[in-house]
Amino acid sequence: MDIKNIVVKEYLESLTEKNELNRIFPMLLEVMGFTILSKPTEYIGLPEYGKDIVAVGVDGDSIKKRFYFELKGGADRDITDANFYGKDGIQDSLTQASYNKFVSAFPEFEQLPLKIVIVHNGIIKGNVQATLEAFIVATQRNLVNTSFDRWDISRLTQLFSEKLFSEYLLVDPQTTRLFNRVLVNLNTTDGISADFRDLLELLFSKEQWNKSKKLSRRWQVLFETFKLVGFIIYTESREHNNLETAKRYLTHLVLKFWNWILKNKLEEDKTVIKYFGQVFNLYFGVLIEYFKRTLPIASLKDGLSWETSGRYEEIGYAKRTFEYLEIYCFFLNVQRFFSTANDKHNHLQLVQLINKNNVCWRPLLDIHSSAVISILNLFIDFGEAQNAKNYLKVVLQQLKAAKEMLGFIPDANNSIESVIKFTLTGVKPVYYSDSTSPLLAVLMEYTALLDMEEEYDIMKKFILDNKIDLGLFVPHHGIDSTSLELIDDKENDLEEQLFSRSLTDGYQSELRLNQKISDDLNFADFKIKIGKRKNEFRYDYRTDRAGYGFLKDLAHLYFKTPYFPDKWRSVNV
Hints:
54% of the residues lie in helices and 8% in strands. By secondary structure, it is an alpha/beta fold. It has a 5-stranded mixed beta sheet with strand order 1-2-3-4-5, sandwiched between helices. Strands 6-7 form a two-stranded antiparallel ribbon. Strands 8-9 form a two-stranded antiparallel sheet. A hairpin with a 3-residue loop joins strand 8 (514-515) and strand 9. It is elongated and about 95 Å long. Mean pLDDT is 90; it is low at 42-50.
């Protein structure tokens, strides 16, 4: 056995829960050319034992057959006397699969020979092998056109090595080295390792995309490889009991995949989008599990604080909380997009999270505007405009108090190191920027959107007294843009830039709180002024047309690009 097979075998044996095997095994079948008619969990609670997966494919004897795959993993990974005879055991599963028909509209499904396969990522122990074989022989005598098989850890290692790992991941020294280093160092950094970035770049560069009517097998296997990489990252993170790692790495995978789709103009290709959807569903499943674990703690009093972090917690608590809020708001937006269920519970959960962590209204960096904007928009979308007003009011009060008492306004250069130095010494570092505040510019526009005249008047005086400039980042790429000639990166459109790096290809749009030079700008005139700026930036997003508009938020958060003005100016209260 070569080193590749050892790696694959150890990985398959590490799948300690049945649902892990349930999620990776269909990838193998798809690469092997099977048409899957049902997947695991679709029949939970229904009498479909022995049919975890129903598929149609060509068997080793070159005959097309219908297959019933019964998956055994977790505590049942090894076949023993106990799980052979026990309730819902091997004997019961094979009997149910043999005599209970599966109804399908697949052409000539009933006429195809049937093969029933027990799949388990373990071994068969003791004398039970003779018992199993005798049972199969006896059962086959009473059945027509039916055969049985068993795929154990040895067979699975062979199939996964040949059909999946050998195609891209472990096919050459460079890919193998990168893949192994990713796994070894997975839990040693707070970010994304350079090895993982290089691995994805290498995988995407292995094939040259050529448009054709049917997706080639090489591209199918490559897309399955991305699912496999994501799943391995997930299972390894669970092994480390740290889903934060899986969340970070799969975020990068999703954004890299979508950027590649945009670069190749494939956002309307249904086949490619299907594969992307499978990768995104894996990622979203990680988010579901992540928040299932963390929300009960985060929603306790100061649940996102860390008592043992010492003086750093003066900064760390707020930084950690805003990062948590960003991804949680993204999670809620995706849920709302795909679900028709009542949002009431999500609204109450968001309220509790904010109320229990009182740093939620104390931004430290200008980029924390992403969390503030997301919260305000969610409250408005939930039909809870008063909650949006309450949150905005407290954030404005905190910003004003921090400036008046500590001389502090969130750093427009978004350097947490500068904020830490300022907090420790009371002296602003040379690169600390608080003369201009994009965050305050956004919040002042929200006072108009939410009709909060009193807060506008208070903050207007505060901003003018402290000579704070208000400016917003606006990309050059807008539909009505008059600065298209100033675009630096002419090879990548707005979205291709957004999904690959922190976007800076734009200009600062100034927001003045007075008429002409010094005349006072009252609230009514300010609302008119903001209304006229509604179409200052508009863009026809390909990502929106593809049905994945929420991905733009993820790109903004990951690459720390401020939201564009259409993010809040398009909101209807």
